[in-house]
# Entry
Amino acid sequence: MIGYLSLGLLALLSLSIPVGIVLFLLGFGIDAFFSPFPLIKGLGNLVWSTSNNATLIAIPFFVLLGEILVRSGIAARTYAALDKWVSWLPGGLVHANIATATMFSATSGSSVATAATVATVAMPQAERLGYDPKLFSGAIAAGGTLGIMIPPSINLIVYGFLTQTSIPQLFLAGLVPGVTLALGFIVITMIICAVRPALGGERRMFPLLVMVRALAELVPIFLLFAVIIGSIYQGWATPTEAAAVGVAGAIVIAAIFGGVSTRMFTESVLGTVKITSMIMLVVIAASFLNFTLASAGLGRELEAFLDSLGLSPLNTILVIVCMYIVLGFFIETLSLMVVTIPIIVPIVIEQGYDPIWFGILMIVLIEMALITPPVGLNLYVVQGARREGRMSEVMLGAIPYILAMLAMAAALIAFPGIALYLPNSLSGS
Amino acid sequence: MVDTILLRLRSVNRWVAILIGVLLLACVVFVLADIVLRRLGSTLGGTDEISGYVMAIATSWGMGYTLTELGHVRIDILRCRVRSRGRALFDLVSMLALSGVITLIAIRGWPVLERSLANGSRANTPLETPLALVQAPWLAGWVWFALTAWLTFLAALFLIARGEFERSEAAIGTFGEADALR
# Structure
């Protein structure tokens, strides 16, 4: 069954059949060949019960939140404000790229839209101020990936839903690694630009008054983030309710800064529906595949398979990490996560690892997939926003940040506490 | 004729998507109202249940829009390596697989609604929502998705048969990753 799954998955995916449909087809195959009783009878009920779910509605809410912030021009304003605060560092504007991308993809979870916006706003400045295009664009691509780690993250919601782990706990677990990675990106940029100042462009100091005024533009966004995360952790709102508060907050912020229009709303809504349905087709299909696999006895087979391999738990994790890195070259983020969860997560739990910890490790690896060629969505997005230069420049520029992610993955394996300390300390009290 | 079908499908699905957006925004307002009332020591009750229904209906009806916008993710690692004739073949195969699977889902969805109708089932909640009331629009969404898929498939098949690969690609191809954002 494991062989059938892996081969079938690769064959059908490479036929360019939509990922969700591939998972359904595999589920039908498991039902036909491996299950003692017909599972297809449950298809309708399963599709109904998967989509009739109050937790998953957090997904369109968070997407909508991000769309509103980006399309009402708040992202561009934030970029300008952050520029005033970080451009004195070695590397100057590159830090504004990372910080803006982090903040926006953090509030929305839509890393692609963020990377696109930041790239559009930032690129003209890079040319004017003489930045190295490689480092500059690589930093935007890398910064955008952080949104799927720093809560609220749509990918963590999907992971929590499919593995039945607590979404607030996952959010807590992602906080420290996500912020650490963002800081790591900034430190790396500073080191690179301290060694080779030519890459970093001109460093600029702004008068204190300008900085303070810029702060006023940043406060609403920080407040929005704090309200969303705070209300989940305080336990007075579910992720869904926090997301609804976030949407309302985004509309208020957009209204204050004058970006509200019918056109903005229509575009935000259309973008939201498109992304949500894309995610949901894959999620519904994955939960159908999960259901057929569990009914056909994947658990027993996996146990036997692992015994026959005779790997220690640590070696198993290392093999899994390598597999994600290789698959990440070719498969896009959400698909990579969803197609591997039904097989990989049971293995990991079987070996005695914490599913929340593994969720975070998996997210780091999947973030890497966003910026590893040939299929790295953020690389293409950033390249698309540039008017000149070659794709390979963006890829080269992303390499230092990929190394940072690898270091984070290693750190998570060596010290699981990086992810687990916060959720454990809060649930224990 | 083919163009009219494809254009109509796109514009109808666009309107459907806008309606879904209104539904989602209404749901946001509803959830917010409940949070505020709960702080005041009261509650509307049933927000979770209603959010769930909204999600089910929004999901099924949004699928067709995502399809017409070429939004359902495909891995085009082999597809992008062949000429237009080969790409057309990849597109047809994947559209056929999609239309078939979605039709199966729509067919298998009928017993769910049928049972709720026959038993007059109500949700096991304080609201006691008649399930058929929410399952009927949910199922209709899947039927509409299947219909959109088959019509798009047939239109593209027609275009390919006439050798108009560029136009078929606009209907059932993939977005280059760079074009993924409008």
Remarks:
- The helical segments of chain B are 2-39, 47-68, 84-119, 131-161, 165-172.
